[in-house]
Amino acid sequence: MKPAIKAFVFDVYGTLFDVHSVTAACEKQFPGLGVQISQAWRKKQIEYLFLRQLMERYRPFDQVTREALRFTVKEHQENLSDLQEQQLIEEYHRLTPFNEVEDVLKALSGNQLIILSNGTSDMLASLIKRANFTSYFTSILSVDKIKQYKPVPASYNLVLEDVDAAPEEVLFMSSNGWDITGAKSFGFQTAWINRSGLPKEELGFTPDIIYSDLTGMLEWNN
Amino acid sequence: MKPAIKAFVFDVYGTLFDVHSVTAACEKQFPGLGVQISQAWRKKQIEYLFLRQLMERYRPFDQVTREALRFTVKEHQENLSDLQEQQLIEEYHRLTPFNEVEDVLKALSGNQLIILSNGTSDMLASLIKRANFTSYFTSILSVDKIKQYKPVPASYNLVLEDVDAAPEEVLFMSSNGWDITGAKSFGFQTAWINRSGLPKEELGFTPDIIYSDLTGMLEWNN
Asked: Name one GO molecular function term (chains A, B) (predicted).
């Protein structure tokens, strides 16, 4: 039996939008290395978010994304001109939503649909506007408000400051295993959108539901 | 000119001891995958330390190491029996020191030589005893005392609780870029033992010295 859910909360990067839609732009700048650089960039970006949080040296997501790109290009023994950097960063502001996202948002509309992301408010507003998704969401929450990144508990608590719900009345969706673990540890119901077919994390918290993409959420239509 | 240093502080895993000395044991259990599994295991171990710290779900280093191994093996679509797991974990308690370590410890003896590690006290004592290094160290500090992993500031502060020194009178050595960044952010002098020839991290903190292995520390002999 499905629990009563008062708010459906979406992660953004990797969940609604494909972070690897920068692959073609990476390939254009670094022929033969597009896939590798895109994947290493994303991994480094996440590592840098974690490290800045741990070191108590918060900086906004766009700066961290840029710093991760710089490291990644150097790690691949390539050079990055200011112009190339600017072009790749702009590409990051134009990520493509996954194909099924709009159908799922339509099916769930009428519920409280919330975004909770490590991205800045500006980055989120721009991405969601470009995709014409603005009208579906009741709230767009950025951790930048408290300058603490997911998966720290305070970041997930932003949802509870926004809606009148108990943690277990929130269904949180993310493709990122670490994000799903953090959300479950905080007390949310979780649906892991396991786009890459990875094994479950071994951190003592199991997602309540696993779907291979967001299409699984269509069964929550009521 | 070298600053006056009151304490020389060593990281352990990857710095004094080779975490990839488990490669042969991994290869024996998973033929053809030894290098890949050893490397992925180490990366996952570090990610899990960070995640547990961020989620405020500290568990000791040996448990995290075991959980990271379980994920890594599943990620490589292999199975891990209880016996195999036990054998690999035991291997982790028998890591090999890098060749130059003993000469460096000898050259620096007479100074305060301290260990600061994410490992548990038991794991550290056993590793150091096996290598016959016990007599070189004035203190062996484990973050397990405060249950907060490096690179959080409180972990580096354990050194200042142990020695009478200002942060800039401590020289901290690690092969891990994230550890060197955290130590520099805290205020230590840092020597990055860049064993893998990686680029500098792009996190706004630059190591004071870079050596390709600990042999560079021989010039601190006085």
From this structure: hydrolase activity, acting on acid halide bonds, in C-halide compounds
